[in-house]
Amino acid sequence: MRMGKRVWILFLVAILSAGAAGCGFIEAPAEKMIISEMEEKYGEEFRFVEWRNLPFGSESCTAHLECGALPGKLIKAGRETARDGKMIYFDNYMGYLYEDMIRKEIENAVECIYPESKVLFLVPSCQFPRDMGPEMSAEDIMHDKETLLAAMILVKQQSDDWDKEQKLEQLRCGLEERQLRVDGNLFLVSDETAFEEINGSNYSDWTAREDWFSERCYFAMDKNYSFLYANWR
Hints:
Nuclear Transport Factor 2, Chain: A; five-stranded mixed β-sheet
């Protein structure tokens, strides 16, 4: 065998051997470990659905699971390596468990500023504390500075001369009073049909269109409850 070819083969073997330590080559063990951690943590049975994020050559990975206690929900669960080298397991199970309570808290803040409004609480897009677990109440989770709640806010616009900046700042203050950090997408809705029909199942189809709202604002709050950004368009 020629030396160049032999070196190339040894190089490929080395890459494959190194990669075998990551999720890309140990899908079954990683899957079993995530499910085992979830079942021990919550005392429920979980079923693996699919990989959500499976980087080649990394032990960090995220999956979608199902659970009989939360029918119809795709629960995100995964693991990552901490700075000290330990493996951390995380999930958004409690976000779904308290979904209605958290949505109601956001609605209360929104309705004080925008009486004719609707809030879609988007659990899959939220950021939750890595140590979130069954010992935490809904209030514990909402008020944790590591929590960033994702919401789509629909506001039925009443006139063309709205003071949108003032209203938005009032909303920020209301969320701060409730210790809620929100990553929001606020729409001033000019279409009655859209306002009535948009829900948690079809909102992504509507957001791809621009014929049902007059303006929208992307905003997110930092850990001091100030705006990281608030961009109208």
